[in-house]
Design goal:
3 domains, flat, two-stranded antiparallel sheet, mainly alpha
């Protein structure tokens, strides 16, 4: 299937449901990146995992006759990981990293750490930021009035409140 915007092969296929009606979107990698959509890896990790054992033996990570390690937390063996392609728990990453690190690096085009985008701010965070901005605006107005009225003690209190507002961690109200 080709991209909806050009004739290149589509790598992102998305179904959008709005108001009970669904529309399909097919985009090539370039147009998907422009729209901020995640682009799948060139070679899926599941396709790489069956060859994992052979690659590791060639590179000397697993020696002859050596049994693959077992995760101390969940008991998953490396052989089970190779079959399923899924790790059993967070401790599996540490247990199997010497054996899977190189494969993951190849699959991710050299990246071994997350390089994707962060999630969009939540509605609560946006509302909290808006409340802080309104409070800052009110304090500034009150500060200007206090200075104009020569109420310097009040102005100093308002100045201190503004400083505290700027240095406080922003946590949305529950």
């Amino acid at each position: 299937m080709n991209c909806d915007l050009c004739n290149k092969p589509a790598v992102v296929h998305e179904v959008i449901i709005h108001g009970g009606k669904s529309t399909e979107l097919h985009l090539c990698a370039e147009h998907a990146i422009e729209k901020g959509l995640p682009v799948p890896m060139q070679q899926p990790l599941a396709d790489i995992l069956p060859a994992l054992g052979g690659v590791l033996k060639v590179e000397g990570v697993i020696g002859k006759g050596q049994q693959p390690s077992r995760c101390p937390a969940c008991g998953l063996t490396f052989a089970e990981f190779k079959k399923s392609g899924a790790l059993g728990c967070p401790a599996c990453y540490d247990s199997f990293m010497p054996m899977i690190g190189q494969v993951i690096e190849r699959a991710q085009a050299g990246a071994t750490a997350h390089v994707g985008s962060l999630p969009a701010p939540s509605k609560d965070a946006a509302q909290a930021a808006e409340r802080v901005q309104r409070l800052r605006s009110k304090l500034m107005t009150d500060l200007e009035r206090a200075i104009a009225a020569e109420q310097y003690e009040r102005a100093a209190q308002l100045r201190d409140e503004l400083k505290a507002l700027d240095t406080a961690p922003q946590v949305p109200d529950e």
